[in-house]
Write a structure and sequence with these properties.
The protein has a single domain, classed as Distorted Sandwich (Glucose Permease (Domain IIA)). It has 1 helix and 15 strands; from the N terminus they run αβββββββββββββββ. The chain has one helix spanning about 5-10; strands at about 15, 25-30, 30, 45, 60-65, 70-75, 80-85, 90-95, 100-105, 105-110, 115, 120-125, 135-140, 145, 160. Strand 7 (about 80-85) and strand 8 (about 90-95) form a beta hairpin.
């Protein structure tokens, strides 16, 4: 059954406001402003799959397609808390305001521990080894709970778009 044009007109479109591409970082309420850690295109190779238990199986981040030596960017303002190997995997980990931490691997770091970085700063270059083709694993967690890093990319503000006037008969 197809809905009537009047019923269709009642439907409002929800749109998540995309973050502005401003050069200077912005704060939206208490949330820092984040952007993608790789330049476009943003092709998702593997999505976030939250673990059911702290040590259970899952995918604690997302994998974004890339190529070797591509610059990896700080997704938000923060401080480098690790830049180097962890279990033979080179990675960079940043701590952001509010206790959020983001990780980027495999990355040949161009930053050092305790260094301050701003959103969009180059923190290293993508290396081969994580996916069959080069890809960046980008993870995020707060207080030991992993979160889908794509949720950092939206302001969280929902806007309702106006619908055309309707007449009910």
């Amino acid at each position: 059954m197809n809905p009537s044009p009047q019923l269709s007109a009642l439907v409002m479109t929800l749109m998540i406001a995309a973050p502005a591409a401003a050069a200077a970082p912005q704060r939206l309420g208490n949330r820092p402003h984040f952007s993608w850690p790789l330049p476009k295109p943003h092709e998702l190779v593997r999505p976030f799959i939250p673990p059911l238990t702290p040590y259970g199986p899952g995918h604690r981040g997302i994998d974004i397609a890339g190529w070797t030596d591509r610059p990896v960017l700080a997704a938000g303002d923060g401080r480098v808390i690790h830049a180097g190997p962890v279990v033979n995997r080179p990675l960079v980990s940043l701590e952001h305001p509010g206790g959020l931490r983001t990780t980027y691997e495999p990355v040949a770091p161009s930053v050092t521990r305790h260094q301050r970085v701003h959103r969009g700063d180059v923190i290293g270059h993508l290396m081969a080894g994580h996916c069959p083709t080069a890809c960046l694993h980008w993870g995020a967690h707060r207080a030991g709970t992993y979160v889908d890093p794509r949720r950092l990319l939206s302001s969280g503000q929902v806007r309702l778009l106006p619908s055309p006037p309707i007449t009910l008969s």
